[in-house]
Specification:
single chain, about 325 residues, alpha/beta, Spore Coat Polysaccharide Biosynthesis Protein SpsA, Chain A, 2 domains, eight-stranded mixed beta sheet, 8 strands, about 50% helix, about 15% strand, elongated, binds uridine-5'-diphosphate, binds magnesium ion
Length: about 325
């Protein structure tokens, strides 16, 4: 009987050729130092650079502890991680970015929390090294999310987290197309906790997230985990129609008593534009949810796997 596989580390990789050598050099020693049986599951998210080649070379070097899932296109970070989950076999699964923003040495601290009985270990970045607008935006989004979802997370932006096998199995049963993994996992956790982990500047290469994809990601987080935006909207609708009902009554009475008025045209414009703005936003919001429904009913595969590099259990030594 081989020792049980304690740890799977799932790493999504998209055009990371510049940082992969440094990652290999730091990750494997850190994991070897843990003294448990582990595997690293790299998921290549359709990289167009040399990443896939570097990953397969690393597989040749450490086939005993390395598995590589090559996706057939770019499906995005979260789907890539989901693919990694499907192929992970460890009792505990840690997700990590490839860019070395979080030190692999901190995996030990995550595991220590799991030893203490937690099934979900989130993370808070010690000292964030991101641009100022990402600080501000992420603080605002954190606060908004706290209000409209039941997900309590101090720092939603940090992907270095640990999950128990039970949570991973539950996630594997979910067929959502666009999701936000830390939030999805949080919903299935019984005893979640958070620790502070290190955060450095990206070692090499550049961020794969533009402002646009960050906004998309936050929509996934809000509309994927809460109906509050829709409900809020009907509340706004009720309030606005009540107020405008009062306004109509007031104007009608005024007309009867004081006679018709001439001014006030631009006030009317202002009110009309405000309402049009609210309606447009509402339609957009409906569209967000309908888009999600549309994607779910099509039931397309979330990702397509081109190849998997792995050694079958019992094969070679
Ligand atoms: N990533 C991915 N597919 C994508 C975009 C990103 O697999 O379409 C991976 C990327 O290789 C990295 C992780 O997701 O390992 C986080 O990306 P990045 O560091 O660019 O995000 P940031 O830290 O800037 O939020
Ligand atoms: Mg990063």
């Amino acid at each position: 009987m081989p020792a049980p596989l304690v740890l799977s580390v799932v790493i999504p990789v998209y055009n990371e050729e510049a940082v992969l050598p440094a990652l290999f050099a730091r990750l494997y020693p850190a994991l070897d130092a843990l003294g448990v049986r582990y595997e690293v599951v790299f998921v290549d998210d359709g990289s167009r650079d040399q990443s896939a080649r570097l990953l397969s070379e690393q597989f040749e070097r450490r086939p005993d502890v390395t598995r590589v899932v090559l996706l057939n296109g770019n499906f995005g970070q979260h789907r890539a991680i989901l693919a990694g989950f499907e192929y992970s076999r460890g009792e505990r699964v840690v997700t990590l970015d490839a860019d070395l923003q979080n030190p692999p040495e901190d995996i030990a601290a995550l595991l220590a929390q799991m030893d203490a009985g937690h099934d979900y270990v989130g993370s808070i970045r010690r000292q964030r090294n991101d641009s100022w607008w990402r600080h501000v935006a992420s603080r605002a989004m954190n606060r908004l999310r706290e209000r409209i979802t039941r997900i309590r997370m101090t720092d939603q932006g940090c992907m270095m987290r640990a999950y128990s096998r039970r949570i991973i199995d539950t996630i594997n049963q979910c067929n959502e197309m666009n999701t936000f993994i830390p939030a999805l996992a949080y919903q299935f956790a019984q005893n979640p906790t958070e620790i502070v982990v290190g955060h450095e500047e990206r070692q090499a290469g550049e961020s794969k997230y533009s402002l646009y994809s960050l906004i998309r990601l936050n929509f996934d987080l809000m509309t994927g985990f809460s109906l509050v935006p829709l409900q809020l909207f009907s509340m706004v609708g009720i309030i606005v129609s009540l107020l405008s009902g009062l306004l109509v009554i007031y104007m009608g009475g005024r007309r009867l008593i004081l006679g018709p008025e001439e001014g006030g045209l631009f006030t009317l414009f202002a009110i009309a534009f405000l309402l049009i703005g609210i309606v447009l936003f509402g339609i957009g919001l409906l569209g967000e949810y309908i888009g999600r429904i549309y994607q779910e009913v099509r039931q397309r595969p979330r990702y397509v796997i081109a190849a998997v590099l792995e050694r079958q259990p019992g094969e070679g030594a």
